[in-house]
Amino acid sequence: GALRALCSEVARRMAKSAPSRPVAIFALGPTGVGKTRSAQELADAMRDLEGDGATSFLRLDMNEYQEEYRISQLLGAPQGYIGHGSGSQLLEVLQREGRAIVLFDEIDKAHPAILKVLMNAMDAGRISSAGEIEGSREVDCRGAIFIFTSNHDATEVIGDADALTTDVYEHRFEVDDIARKRLLEARVAPEIIGRLSRFLLFLPLDEQTRAAIVTLAVQESAEEYGLDVTYIEPSVIIEVMRVATDGGFGARPIRYLVDDLLGRAFVAAVEDDLNGKSVRVCGPPFSLEVKVSPTEGEDE
Protein backbone atom coordinates (compact mmCIF):
# COMPACT_ATOMS: atom_id res chain seq x y z
CA GLY A 1 0.00 0.00 0.00
CA ALA A 2 2.68 2.53 1.00
CA LEU A 3 4.85 1.85 -2.05
CA ARG A 4 1.89 2.03 -4.43
CA ALA A 5 0.92 5.37 -2.90
CA LEU A 6 4.49 6.66 -3.20
CA CYS A 7 4.68 5.64 -6.87
CA SER A 8 1.33 7.29 -7.56
CA GLU A 9 2.47 10.61 -6.08
CA VAL A 10 5.79 10.55 -7.94
CA ALA A 11 4.15 9.61 -11.26
CA ARG A 12 1.84 12.62 -11.01
CA ARG A 13 4.75 14.89 -10.20
CA MET A 14 6.82 13.66 -13.14
CA ALA A 15 3.87 14.31 -15.45
CA LYS A 16 3.64 17.98 -14.40
CA SER A 17 5.58 20.41 -16.56
CA ALA A 18 5.05 23.40 -14.23
CA PRO A 19 4.54 22.32 -10.59
CA SER A 20 3.74 25.13 -8.15
CA ARG A 21 5.21 23.51 -5.03
CA PRO A 22 7.26 20.47 -4.03
CA VAL A 23 5.67 17.12 -3.26
CA ALA A 24 5.48 16.74 0.54
CA ILE A 25 4.97 13.20 1.79
CA PHE A 26 4.90 11.96 5.37
CA ALA A 27 5.92 8.31 5.95
CA LEU A 28 4.63 6.76 9.16
CA GLY A 29 5.46 3.36 10.58
CA PRO A 30 7.53 1.46 13.14
CA THR A 31 11.30 1.48 12.95
CA GLY A 32 12.95 -0.81 10.44
CA VAL A 33 10.02 -1.28 8.03
CA GLY A 34 11.53 0.42 4.98
CA LYS A 35 10.69 4.12 5.18
CA THR A 36 14.24 5.34 4.61
CA ARG A 37 15.14 2.54 2.18
CA SER A 38 12.08 3.34 0.05
CA ALA A 39 13.24 6.93 -0.40
CA GLN A 40 16.72 5.76 -1.40
CA GLU A 41 15.36 3.22 -3.87
CA LEU A 42 13.03 5.85 -5.34
CA ALA A 43 16.00 8.09 -6.11
CA ASP A 44 17.81 5.19 -7.79
CA ALA A 45 14.74 4.33 -9.86
CA MET A 46 14.31 7.93 -11.02
CA ARG A 47 17.97 8.13 -12.00
CA ASP A 48 17.51 4.97 -14.07
CA LEU A 49 14.54 6.53 -15.83
CA GLU A 50 16.00 9.99 -16.38
CA GLY A 51 19.72 9.26 -16.62
CA ASP A 52 22.56 9.79 -14.15
CA GLY A 53 22.56 13.18 -12.51
CA ALA A 54 18.92 13.93 -13.28
CA THR A 55 17.77 13.29 -9.71
CA SER A 56 19.90 13.79 -6.63
CA PHE A 57 19.21 12.33 -3.20
CA LEU A 58 19.89 13.88 0.18
CA ARG A 59 19.13 12.34 3.57
CA LEU A 60 19.03 14.66 6.56
CA ASP A 61 18.94 13.07 10.02
CA MET A 62 16.84 15.54 11.97
CA ASN A 63 18.25 14.22 15.26
CA GLU A 64 21.21 16.42 14.34
CA TYR A 65 19.02 19.52 13.98
CA GLN A 66 17.46 19.80 17.44
CA GLU A 67 19.19 23.12 18.21
CA GLU A 68 18.18 26.37 16.51
CA TYR A 69 21.72 27.31 15.48
CA ARG A 70 21.91 24.21 13.26
CA ILE A 71 19.61 25.94 10.77
CA SER A 72 22.72 27.58 9.31
CA GLN A 73 23.81 24.14 8.06
CA LEU A 74 20.66 23.98 5.96
CA LEU A 75 20.48 27.58 4.72
CA GLY A 76 24.04 28.79 5.16
CA ALA A 77 25.36 31.27 7.73
CA PRO A 78 24.68 35.03 7.26
CA GLN A 79 27.55 37.36 6.39
CA GLY A 80 29.65 38.14 9.45
CA TYR A 81 28.81 34.87 11.19
CA ILE A 82 31.00 31.80 11.56
CA GLY A 83 30.48 29.48 8.63
CA HIS A 84 29.56 32.17 6.10
CA GLY A 85 30.63 31.13 2.64
CA SER A 86 31.05 27.46 3.53
CA GLY A 87 27.90 26.49 1.64
CA SER A 88 24.59 24.90 2.52
CA GLN A 89 23.97 21.18 2.35
CA LEU A 90 20.27 21.43 1.51
CA LEU A 91 20.24 24.48 -0.75
CA GLU A 92 23.19 23.39 -2.85
CA VAL A 93 21.43 20.12 -3.70
CA LEU A 94 18.19 21.92 -4.57
CA GLN A 95 20.02 24.52 -6.66
CA ARG A 96 22.05 21.93 -8.53
CA GLU A 97 19.25 19.52 -9.38
CA GLY A 98 15.65 20.51 -10.09
CA ARG A 99 14.28 17.07 -9.21
CA ALA A 100 15.95 16.40 -5.91
CA ILE A 101 14.60 13.92 -3.39
CA VAL A 102 15.20 15.14 0.15
CA LEU A 103 14.54 12.78 3.05
CA PHE A 104 13.96 14.49 6.40
CA ASP A 105 14.42 11.51 8.69
CA GLU A 106 12.59 11.71 12.04
CA ILE A 107 11.27 15.21 11.38
CA ASP A 108 9.58 15.30 14.79
CA LYS A 109 13.06 15.75 16.34
CA ALA A 110 13.83 18.98 14.41
CA HIS A 111 13.84 22.40 16.05
CA PRO A 112 10.65 24.45 15.37
CA ALA A 113 12.70 27.13 13.55
CA ILE A 114 13.71 24.57 10.95
CA LEU A 115 10.09 23.55 10.50
CA LYS A 116 9.14 27.16 9.75
CA VAL A 117 11.68 27.27 6.93
CA LEU A 118 10.27 24.08 5.45
CA MET A 119 6.72 25.43 5.71
CA ASN A 120 7.58 28.33 3.42
CA ALA A 121 9.22 25.94 0.97
CA MET A 122 6.13 23.74 0.86
CA ASP A 123 3.88 26.77 0.34
CA ALA A 124 5.80 28.93 -2.11
CA GLY A 125 8.15 26.39 -3.62
CA ARG A 126 11.13 28.56 -2.75
CA ILE A 127 13.64 28.77 0.09
CA SER A 128 15.52 31.94 0.99
CA SER A 129 19.25 31.56 1.54
CA ALA A 130 21.35 33.47 4.06
CA GLY A 131 23.84 34.15 1.26
CA GLU A 132 23.87 34.15 -2.50
CA ILE A 133 23.96 30.84 -4.35
CA GLU A 134 24.83 31.26 -8.01
CA GLY A 135 23.85 34.94 -7.87
CA SER A 136 20.49 34.52 -6.10
CA ARG A 137 19.26 34.45 -2.53
CA GLU A 138 16.25 32.29 -3.44
CA VAL A 139 16.36 28.63 -4.38
CA ASP A 140 13.57 27.10 -6.45
CA CYS A 141 12.40 23.81 -4.95
CA ARG A 142 9.12 23.34 -6.86
CA GLY A 143 10.46 20.26 -8.63
CA ALA A 144 11.68 18.63 -5.42
CA ILE A 145 10.17 15.71 -3.51
CA PHE A 146 10.25 16.12 0.27
CA ILE A 147 9.77 12.93 2.26
CA PHE A 148 9.37 13.21 6.01
CA THR A 149 9.60 10.19 8.29
CA SER A 150 8.67 9.63 11.89
CA ASN A 151 8.38 6.64 14.20
CA HIS A 152 6.18 8.67 16.51
CA ASP A 153 2.66 7.43 17.27
CA ALA A 154 2.80 4.80 14.53
CA THR A 155 1.12 2.12 16.64
CA GLU A 156 -2.04 4.17 17.14
CA VAL A 157 -2.28 5.13 13.47
CA ILE A 158 -1.82 1.52 12.37
CA GLY A 159 -4.43 0.36 14.86
CA ASP A 160 -6.98 2.89 13.64
CA ALA A 161 -6.26 2.01 9.99
CA ASP A 162 -6.63 -1.71 10.66
CA ALA A 163 -10.12 -1.03 11.96
CA LEU A 164 -10.99 0.45 8.56
CA THR A 165 -9.62 -2.03 6.06
CA THR A 166 -6.75 -4.34 5.19
CA ASP A 167 -5.98 -2.29 2.06
CA VAL A 168 -4.96 1.16 3.22
CA TYR A 169 -4.12 2.23 -0.34
CA GLU A 170 -7.79 2.09 -1.37
CA HIS A 171 -8.81 4.24 1.62
CA ARG A 172 -6.17 6.96 1.42
CA PHE A 173 -8.39 9.83 2.59
CA GLU A 174 -9.48 7.95 5.71
CA VAL A 175 -5.86 7.07 6.44
CA ASP A 176 -4.80 10.68 5.87
CA ASP A 177 -7.44 11.89 8.34
CA ILE A 178 -6.30 9.34 10.94
CA ALA A 179 -2.64 10.31 10.51
CA ARG A 180 -3.36 14.05 10.77
CA LYS A 181 -5.42 13.54 13.93
CA ARG A 182 -2.82 11.36 15.63
CA LEU A 183 0.06 13.66 14.71
CA LEU A 184 -1.82 16.66 16.08
CA GLU A 185 -2.39 14.75 19.31
CA ALA A 186 1.35 14.08 19.38
CA ARG A 187 1.93 17.86 19.10
CA VAL A 188 3.53 17.81 15.68
CA ALA A 189 3.25 21.36 14.30
CA PRO A 190 -0.19 21.74 12.64
CA GLU A 191 1.38 24.10 10.09
CA ILE A 192 3.48 21.20 8.82
CA ILE A 193 0.62 18.69 8.90
CA GLY A 194 -1.62 20.97 6.86
CA ARG A 195 0.95 21.27 4.08
CA LEU A 196 1.44 17.55 3.51
CA SER A 197 -0.01 16.09 0.32
CA ARG A 198 0.03 12.42 1.29
CA PHE A 199 0.61 10.10 4.23
CA LEU A 200 2.28 6.73 3.65
CA LEU A 201 1.52 4.07 6.23
CA PHE A 202 4.22 1.41 6.50
CA LEU A 203 2.82 -1.62 8.30
CA PRO A 204 4.83 -4.11 10.41
CA LEU A 205 6.65 -6.68 8.28
CA ASP A 206 4.97 -10.01 7.56
CA GLU A 207 6.91 -13.28 7.31
CA GLN A 208 7.10 -13.24 3.52
CA THR A 209 8.57 -9.75 3.52
CA ARG A 210 11.07 -10.65 6.26
CA ALA A 211 12.22 -13.65 4.20
CA ALA A 212 12.80 -11.40 1.19
CA ILE A 213 14.77 -8.97 3.37
CA VAL A 214 16.95 -11.81 4.71
CA THR A 215 17.67 -12.91 1.12
CA LEU A 216 18.67 -9.37 0.14
CA ALA A 217 20.78 -8.97 3.29
CA VAL A 218 22.72 -12.16 2.53
CA GLN A 219 23.42 -11.00 -1.02
CA GLU A 220 24.47 -7.51 0.05
CA SER A 221 26.66 -8.83 2.88
CA ALA A 222 28.37 -11.23 0.46
CA GLU A 223 29.04 -8.37 -1.97
CA GLU A 224 31.01 -6.60 0.74
CA TYR A 225 33.39 -9.58 0.67
CA GLY A 226 33.53 -9.54 -3.13
CA LEU A 227 31.28 -12.62 -3.46
CA ASP A 228 28.43 -13.05 -5.95
CA VAL A 229 25.66 -15.12 -4.37
CA THR A 230 23.39 -16.80 -6.90
CA TYR A 231 21.57 -19.27 -4.65
CA ILE A 232 20.64 -19.42 -0.97
CA GLU A 233 19.34 -22.62 0.54
CA PRO A 234 15.93 -22.17 2.23
CA SER A 235 17.35 -23.59 5.48
CA VAL A 236 19.70 -20.59 5.69
CA ILE A 237 16.84 -18.11 5.40
CA ILE A 238 14.70 -20.04 7.88
CA GLU A 239 17.47 -20.10 10.47
CA VAL A 240 18.27 -16.40 10.14
CA MET A 241 14.57 -15.59 10.55
CA ARG A 242 14.40 -17.83 13.62
CA VAL A 243 17.32 -16.08 15.27
CA ALA A 244 16.27 -12.59 14.12
CA THR A 245 13.22 -12.15 16.32
CA ASP A 246 11.66 -8.79 15.50
CA GLY A 247 11.71 -7.27 18.99
CA GLY A 248 10.09 -4.12 17.63
CA PHE A 249 13.13 -3.15 15.54
CA GLY A 250 11.88 -4.33 12.14
CA ALA A 251 14.41 -5.33 9.48
CA ARG A 252 17.33 -3.19 10.63
CA PRO A 253 19.05 -5.76 12.93
CA ILE A 254 18.87 -8.46 10.22
CA ARG A 255 21.78 -6.96 8.28
CA TYR A 256 24.07 -7.13 11.31
CA LEU A 257 22.90 -10.62 12.23
CA VAL A 258 23.56 -11.96 8.73
CA ASP A 259 27.16 -10.75 8.87
CA ASP A 260 27.60 -12.37 12.30
CA LEU A 261 26.16 -15.72 11.20
CA LEU A 262 27.70 -15.93 7.75
CA GLY A 263 30.83 -13.83 8.17
CA ARG A 264 33.09 -16.80 8.92
CA ALA A 265 31.84 -18.63 5.83
CA PHE A 266 32.39 -15.56 3.68
CA VAL A 267 35.93 -15.16 5.01
CA ALA A 268 36.64 -18.82 4.21
CA ALA A 269 35.34 -18.27 0.67
CA VAL A 270 37.67 -15.30 0.22
CA GLU A 271 40.58 -17.38 1.47
CA ASP A 272 39.62 -20.04 -1.10
CA ASP A 273 39.84 -17.37 -3.81
CA LEU A 274 36.14 -17.44 -4.71
CA ASN A 275 35.96 -13.66 -5.14
CA GLY A 276 34.13 -12.68 -8.28
CA LYS A 277 32.76 -16.18 -8.84
CA SER A 278 29.11 -17.19 -8.62
CA VAL A 279 28.58 -18.92 -5.29
CA ARG A 280 25.79 -20.50 -3.28
CA VAL A 281 25.13 -20.26 0.43
CA CYS A 282 24.34 -23.62 2.02
CA GLY A 283 23.13 -24.97 5.33
CA PRO A 284 22.60 -26.59 7.77
CA PRO A 285 22.23 -23.55 10.12
CA PHE A 286 25.31 -22.33 12.01
CA SER A 287 27.58 -24.51 9.88
CA LEU A 288 27.23 -22.37 6.81
CA GLU A 289 29.46 -22.85 3.84
CA VAL A 290 29.94 -21.02 0.58
CA LYS A 291 30.28 -23.33 -2.40
CA VAL A 292 30.77 -22.78 -6.10
CA SER A 293 27.39 -22.89 -7.86
CA PRO A 294 26.74 -25.92 -10.10
CA THR A 295 27.71 -25.42 -13.72
CA GLU A 296 24.99 -25.23 -16.34
CA GLY A 297 23.35 -28.60 -16.84
CA GLU A 298 24.60 -30.01 -13.53
CA ASP A 299 21.98 -31.33 -11.12
CA GLU A 300 21.08 -29.23 -8.11
From TrEMBL:
The keyword DNA damage does not apply. It holds the Pfam family AAA_2. GO terms for biological process: cellular response to heat. Keywords: ATP-binding, Nucleotide-binding. GO terms for molecular function: ATP binding; ATP hydrolysis activity. Residues 21-174 form the AAA+ ATPase domain. GO terms for cellular component: cytoplasm. InterPro entries: AAA+_ATPase, ATPase_AAA_core, ClpA/B, ClpA_ClpB, P-loop_NTPase. This is AAA+ ATPase domain-containing protein. It comes from marine metagenome.
